[in-house]
Design a protein that fits this description.
Length: 98
């Protein structure tokens, strides 16, 4: 299991405490999860969490490169290129469907 799968497990566990990890495992085994979009979501959320903790956006983005073992250019792409991926949208969907 790579860092992205571990982080996705944690994220889904916080949104759906009962079935989260089992659902993630099943979706990965079926191959229906787009790993690129998972990476983008997790990097964006990590940067957001660091910023909420008081980090500047620049420092938070640099720290994401260390955690996710990627380049700053990739983190920047995740933050600015993919505009349609937000956890806020997912949380609203989960809360309305429960």
């Amino acid at each position: 299991m790579n860092i992205y799968q571990k982080r996705l497990h944690q994220l889904v566990q916080s949104l759906c405490p009962h079935d989260g990890p089992a659902v993630v495992d099943l979706l990965f085994r079926l191959g229906v999860i787009d790993s690129t979009l998972v990476k983008v979501l997790l990097i964006r959320e990590h940067v957001r969490e660091l910023m909420l903790a008081g980090e500047s956006k620049l420092n938070a983005m640099w720290r994401a490169t260390e955690i996710f073992a990627c380049t700053y250019k990739y983190v920047r792409k995740c933050m600015y290129y993919y505009k349609d991926i937000n956890l806020d949208q997912a949380e609203n969907t989960v809360s309305t469907s429960v």
